[in-house]
Amino acid sequence: MARVDFNACVVLLDDGTYTRATVRGALMGRTKSLGNTVVVGDVVTLAWEGGGPDAHPTIEAVTPRRNVFSRRASGKDLLEQVVAVNLDEVVVIAATVDPEFRAGLVDRVFAQCAHQALPARLVMNKIDAGDRAEAAAIVADYARAGFGGALVSAHTGEGVDALRATLHGKRTMFFGHSGVGKSSLLNTLEPSFALLVGAVNDKTGKGRHTTTAATLLRPEPDVELIDTPGVRAFGLWGIEPETLDTAWPDFGPFLGHCRFDDCRHVSEPGCAVRAAVKEGSIALRRYDSFLKLREELLQERELERGRSRGRF
What we know:
CATH class of the largest domain: Alpha Beta
CATH topology of the largest domain: Rossmann fold
Helix content: 25-40%
Number of helices: 8
Number of strands: 13
Largest sheet: 6 strands, mixed
Order of helices and strands: EEEHEEEEEHEHEHEHHEEHH
Strand content: 15-25%
CATH superfamily of the largest domain: P-loop containing nucleotide triphosphate hydrolases
């Protein structure tokens, strides 16, 4: 599955071409809505109706998924949005300028990846315009957390060849804040990318140069890239405040070694996580981000409880 716009689907065929397809009504259930039934990355079974040039494909079945990348859907209701499936890795694009680096989004995406056992890494773009030393320090902090990283410039091409070499044999989803240059970097990585986007958008009728939905492209036989719309916020799915520490891989070696089994890693005596932060094994920016995110999750849960009681 290359793209889903509401109930319109574009399928990447085995020969590398794209076709528009409808979805068998039985897959959509009573609501007659796709929801998370068919998403980008799904392997689907097509039935061709009609003959010759007028043959039209219909999606009849979806192959079981080997993994999913989800987020909380926007809005007040507590709903899951599956962004893409059957991934080999997630690459988060960030920058130090235009916009400035925001650890909150990066850490949310990485926590979701850890929760769903997906490899992830950080790529700092715009190093030609921003503070290179700051970008390198950020990458180093995340390297201590177990996440690979790279410094690149879509504008000058620095670091692009090395990044391109890591994409072969994988399906990689690119994610990032609006404005970090994600689509520009993809176009620099693969010069054919813009042409492929145009080919897909010919099927969807969407604008050629604006990413409005996740789109899977195969610029080379062994390279699959998923471009996603730039985001301003990211809600976690399936992670509770009490289990957030398990979605912080850099906390892993120290969990279970705190003096108290229910340690919150805030001010409790004998906290192994706080000791690791003090000695530098865990980056301070990662620890601060954890505390902030857990507090947000606690507040969100209270709001949900309030809504369920009819108080809000």
